[in-house]
Design the sequence.
């Protein structure tokens, strides 16, 4: 288990991380969200022991993270951390040695992952000759080749097409089944909703929203109603608690302030030939925009 306990990081008068706490259990995927500059990268560096926190502490399985523990951590960065003149094989052997792995074991892991990602032919190719998407796969391989206890994924799907996104998703789920604690950061909220059970949202280093995703969505009062077959939207717009009515092809999306407004909406249109009436929870993207916007206004 990873425990982040009340960490603070200051650079002079600037507070990059402000009293942040969370836990990631074995086999759990946790979302760390925030705008650019919110403190995510600083948090990752503190977790990995690359930076010292000004206050607070971080432990993995009850132990402080130092060079005795970092071999058990994998990190996929948004920026490439590959050496372009090396071949894929040379790169993996080099990183395997840094993780205390024998050349034989490193190559065995490489063969497994190259086959899984359907790029067996790239073993002898130089990194600089690969597409951005395939470079991202190699970066992922070097992060997980030692089957880490803790895996940090910072925008892991950068440069990948939909087919390769699915391949990487499958690989992440496999590592979760092995018991890895995984921290996931992405600006693509649909990935966060797919993967994460719990999350925290940072604004200027300070956590403004945290908890289980299902509870966060349930607690957020605004809802969406998807309706097909409305004759006149003006009558809906007059209902107190209806925030907006927008059309997307044949479907109208009615945003409401509270689920209690649902009955009034239905009563208003019940004489129309309604073919669809679905009450949806708001997307995580909507909640993120609303909460971050609220905080930035203060």
Sequence:
């Amino acid at each position: 288990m990873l425990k982040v306990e009340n960490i603070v990081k200051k650079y002079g008068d600037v507070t990059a991380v402000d009293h942040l706490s969370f836990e990631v259990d074995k086999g759990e995927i946790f979302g760390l969200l925030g705008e650019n500059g919110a403190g995510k990268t600083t948090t990752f560096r503190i977790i990995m022991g690359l930076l010292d926190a000004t206050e607070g502490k971080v432990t993995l399985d009850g132990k402080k993270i130092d060079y005795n523990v970092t071999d058990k951590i994998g990190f996929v960065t948004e920026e490439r951390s590959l050496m372009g003149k090396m071949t894929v094989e040379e790169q993996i052997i080099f990183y395997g040695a840094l993780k205390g792995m024998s050349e034989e074991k490193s190559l065995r892991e490489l063969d497994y992952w190259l086959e899984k990602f359907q790029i067996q032919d790239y073993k002898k190719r130089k990194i600089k000759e690969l597409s951005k998407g395939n470079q991202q796969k190699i970066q992922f391989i070097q992060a997980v080749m030692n089957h880490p206890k803790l895996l940090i994924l910072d925008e892991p799907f950068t440069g990948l097409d939909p087919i390769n996104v699915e391949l990487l998703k499958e690989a992440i789920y496999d590592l979760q089944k092995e018991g890895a604690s995984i921290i996931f950061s992405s600006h693509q909220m649909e990935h966060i909703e797919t993967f994460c059970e719990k999350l925290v949202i940072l604004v200027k280093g300070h956590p403004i929203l945290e908890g289980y995703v299902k509870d966060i969505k349930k607690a957020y009062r605004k809802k969406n109603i998807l309706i097909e077959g409305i004759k006149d939207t003006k009558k809906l717009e007059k209902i107190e608690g209806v925030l907006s009515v927008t059309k997307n092809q044949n479907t109208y999306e009615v945003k409401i302030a509270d689920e209690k407004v649902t009955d009034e909406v239905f009563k208003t249109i019940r004489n129309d030939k309604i073919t669809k009436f679905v009450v949806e929870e708001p997307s995580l993207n909507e909640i993120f925009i609303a909460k971050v916007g609220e905080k930035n206004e203060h």
